[in-house]
Structure formats: C-alpha cells, structure tokens
Amino acid sequence: MDSPKTAIGIRGVVLLCIAVVIFSELLGLPLLRRSIRPAPPPNNFTPATGVPSLVAWNEATIILSSTGNPVRGEFISKRCELCHGVEGFSSRASTPNLAGIDAQYLWKQLQDFRTGKRKSVIMQQIAGAFTSRDAADVAAYFAMLPNAPDAQFSPSFPQTLQDHGVIETAQRLLAVGDPTRGIPPCQACHGPLGYVRPAPSLASQNSDYVLGQLNDFAQGARTNDVNLPMRTIAAELRPSERQAVAEFYGAALARFPVGYVSQ
Amino acid sequence: MRTENFRAALVVVIFSLVYGTLRFSSTLQAAHILDRRDRVDLAALHLHGEFVESNLGATRSADGPVTIHMIAEKYVFVPACVTVPAGVPIRLRITSADSAHGFKIAGSEVKTVPGSVTEIHLLFPAADKYEFYCDEFCGPGHHAMMGRIVAVPESQFQPQNSDHGAACGQP
Q: Looking at A222-236, B18-32, B58-72, which range is the least confident one?
C-alpha cells in the first residue's frame, strides 16, 4: 500500500541512484583514458647546455647498468687497482673506496666522466677509454666486493676519529638531519635506512673523499647530481657540519642505522 | 520487513550520493594533474623541457607574470629557496622526480606526482619569509623536506635561479 507522496517509490529511488553511479563511471572513463595516453616523444631532442648529466634513468639504462658481467669487470678493474686499491679499498683517504658501491651509481659516474660532466683529470681519461658496457661490467664487479676492508692491503679505511666531539653533530645529521633548514637525514638516501637511485652507500667511504665531495657540491665544483639534490643540501650544511659528517663516515660509524644502535 | 527495505534503500542512496559526489568532482573538477598538456618526461627532466636546471626558480616574462619552476624530490625541494616579488600573482609549476610529494604553504596545499606538472597560483601579500613543506609522506627523510619563499618588495626583485639559499640567510 503505497502512500501517494512517494510517486516513484523506494525501488525507483534505488534504481535512480545506481543509474547515477553507472553514468558517472561511464562519464569518467573516456576522460581518464584520454589523459593517461602517453605524451608524444619530443622530436627535436637536443640536450640543453649546462645539463648536469647526460644519463637519463629510463628502462634501457637501468637494465644496462644493473646487468653488468662481474667476471669481465674484474679484468677491466685491474687498471683501477693502483688508486682504488686491490679489493676496492684505497690506501689514500682522498680516493674513494669502490668496494660494495651501488652499481648504478658507479655506472653513472663513469658515464659522467666519459662525457665530461664530472671533472677529474685522471678519471676522464680512464673512463673515456671505456664503453658503456665496460662501465657496467666494472660497476658490477665493484658492487659485488665485500664492503669490509682487508688489512693485508693496507687500506686507509677506517680512519681513527681524532675529535670525538663530532659524533653528536654527525649522528644528528645522519639520523634526523635538520628539518628547520631543510636538511634531510643522510641515511635516508645513502643507507642503511633507505636508498634512492642512484645515491651511493657511504657506509665504507673515506672521510677525506666525502668531505671533498661535499665541499665541491656546495661550491658548485661538482655538478653532476641530477636535479640538484646534493648541491642543495651541501650548500646548506655549515663547513663544520660537513667535516663532522665526513669524519663520522670515514671512521666506519655509519654501518648500521644511526639512532637504532647505542654507541 | 518494510522498515528493513527502507533502511537498505537508504544505505544505497547515501552510498551513491557520496560516491557520485567524489566521482563527479575527481573526474570533472579536480583531475588537473592528469591533464595531457602538463605531462613531462620523468627520466629526462634535466635534459629538456621546462624543468632543466637553468629554468628552475623564479622567472619573469616580458609582460609581467612571475613563474616559479620547482622540482620536488626525495627529500628536498629544488630550489629550496626562491625569491619572489610581494603583491604580484605568482604561478608555481611543480613536478616530482620520484614519488608523490605535497607542497603546503600557509593556507594552500597541492600534491604533485611524477610525470606530470601541478600548477598553483599564489599571492604573497607582504614582504616576508614563507616556509613550505611536503605534506605527503614520501619516505624516511620526509620530515625534513621543506623550503622557503622570500617575498621582497617588487622594486628589489631580481629574477634568479637557485642562489643556494643566500636569500634565506643560509648557511
């Protein structure tokens, strides 16, 4: 017994609502389909002058840089031994350790040396003799090495900490950064808490090298960080903070997430 | 039985009202980030397009409007410090280099996702320092992802790219 006020009835209202939902779905579909169509590739592709790096992380470069042949890389790596050490641990603190380094990071640096986007008299010549595949193989080899130094090759890592006062500053910067100045924690990208392509792990990196790179980023001497993350962050770090962070890394104190283990 | 039927119908009605509103507004009113005109090549942001290094920061075209180009990435805004003129409408074009990020400044906030450009129009009423934050959780460094916009009197405004925070008095 329907009341005269509800002319279309409850069933009618329900059907109307379902119709509205279906209609709005159908309305949305063509709009969404139109908008997710990929953009046409640029037909006038010329890299702008002053680009930080010619490496673009697309499917091809990611596959190439992460599928190197470490056995072939070991042969090529003989020409790295003089400076970077026998098993990737250098005997000079100003030369980077390559043992256990991220393969994509190392491949990108070698590409940047080849194309002159990262400046180094020696490395531009050595990497200039590599092909892209050579660089991937060398990167695969160094990425495979254990990141703990072997004392028989007299590595400079780890250095002993001269001033224990830097520990507190460095721990703060590694664990929380400085949110009031927009400095993110180092370990969010450089491990072991988190990684961002292609940020290298710094757990076994030499202090002099880290300090030198931070200064170069801050002063604009090194410009091959794509989209400027490190130039932005290093410029906001005070010189004393760069020193503290570099010494902390160089003393092998950052092998575990800072703030999760007691010192 | 009649009451149950009525309640069931009420549930359907309320559900479809809420759902329809969401669907309508997301499809027709707010889905600007999916617009085809505003897509960018994520892998080659630094190689070509409007987000190359030399184009980041505040620029002023000949006929007056000020545009800020900005990249949000893990875990910084680039440039982290931008100088703009006060009292002038500003167009901020922001894109993300890796994951979803937020851009929250004073009462406005907008999301940005990789591969497309989000545009927001801002007006800074007075010469002052304005801080902005990422308000979309993006990873272990999210809490420190912030930057500053320094509004200066229009006569003092110099269009510039990233000045490494000198205008913000850093370090």
A: B18-32
How far is the alpha carbon of B152 from chain A, nearest alpha carbon, in Å? 20
Inter-chain touch B41–A36, beta carbons under 8 Å? no
Burial label, B64 (beta-carbon count in 10 A; 0-12, 13-18, 19+): exposed
- Among B2, B15, B47, B135, most A C-beta atoms within 10 A, so best to mutate, is B47
E strand or H helix at A248? helix A239-250
Give pLDDT tens digits for A51-76. 889 999 989 999 999 999 999 999 99
Amino acid code (one letter) for B114 = P
Instruction: List, as ranges, residues 5-44 from A with C-beta within 8 Å of B.
Output: 10-11, 13-14, 17-18, 20-21, 24-25, 27-28, 31-32, 34-39, 42
**Residue B96: pLDDT over 90:** yes
Tokens 């509103």 correspond to what residue? B21
Q: In the prediction, which pLDDT does A22 show? A: 81
Judging contacts by C-beta atoms under 8 Å, the chain A residues touching residue B6 are: 10
Query: Closest Cα partner for A242 from A190, A173, A165, A196?
Result: A173
Please tell me the distance from the alpha carbon of residue B108 to that of residue B123, in angstroms, as a whole number.
Answer: 11
- ipTM comes to 0.79
Contact A232 B79 (CB under 8 A): yes
Concatenating the DSSP letter of every residue in A76-93 gives HGGGGHHHH-TTS--SST
Burial of B113 (0-12, 13-18, 19+ CB in 10 A): middle
Cβ neighbours of residue A48 closer than 8 Å, sequence gap 6 or more? B47, B48, B52, B54
The conformation of residue B118, written as its DSSP 8-state character, comes to E
| Confidence label for A263 from pLDDT (cuts 50, 70 and 90) | very low
Cβ–Cβ below 8 Å for A228 and B78: yes
